[in-house]
Amino acid sequence: MAGGKPPAPADVYADLLMLYEEVIGWYLREKERKKTRSKTLRGTALALVTCGGLIPLMSAVAPWVNAQVGYLFLAAAAALTLADKSFGYSAAWDRFVRLAVEANVLYLRLQVEWRSGVGRDRDTDHLWELVEGYAARLGELVLSETTKWSDELQSSIDELQSAVAIKGR
């Protein structure tokens, strides 16, 4: 509160719009990073599976080709798929797209509701309720995504620990 005056709902509304834009922008930028990593891992795994399946066929035509090498390609493909799952790139990509879309829908609704409430017989209390409600919804969206990320991370850690424990026996 500068000068002892409380902020006007319009000032808080403008700040909230900027916050929505920052959140949406961050998730869209991060989505691109996750998408690139996911597609790289999945695309490379697909190429390795193809090679792993073709090598035994080639060995039937070309005896100098060792059919057993195909298993190495298949194992590498499985490792890349496991890496994508363990690091959560595909899952995060999906979550980030969903959150950005949901936040954008709320962002647009907020603007429409604000414009329909300003200049009419709506009182200041209504405008405060509107701003507070949309601020809470954005917070809930981000909290929900963070909780999903945390749950997926813990699940991946548990799976890796189980895999290491089984191999260590």
Written overview of the protein:
The chain has helices spanning 9-61, 69-87, 89-117, 124-168. With 169 residues, it is mainly α. The chain has one domain. Helix 3 (89-117) runs antiparallel to helix 4 (124-168). The chain is elongated, with a radius of gyration of 25 Å. It starts with 8 loop residues before the first helix and ends with a helix.
Key terms:
169 residues; mainly alpha; 86% helix; elongated
Major sheet characteristics: none
Q: Mean of residue pLDDT?
A: 90
Rounded Rg: 25 Å
Strand content: under 5%
> Helix count?
4
- The H/E string reads HHHH
- Backbone shape: elongated
What is the structural class?
Answer: mainly alpha
Distance between the termini: 63 Å
Tell me briefly what this model is.
The chain is built from four helices and no strands. Helices cover 86% and strands 0% of the residues. It has one domain (8-168).
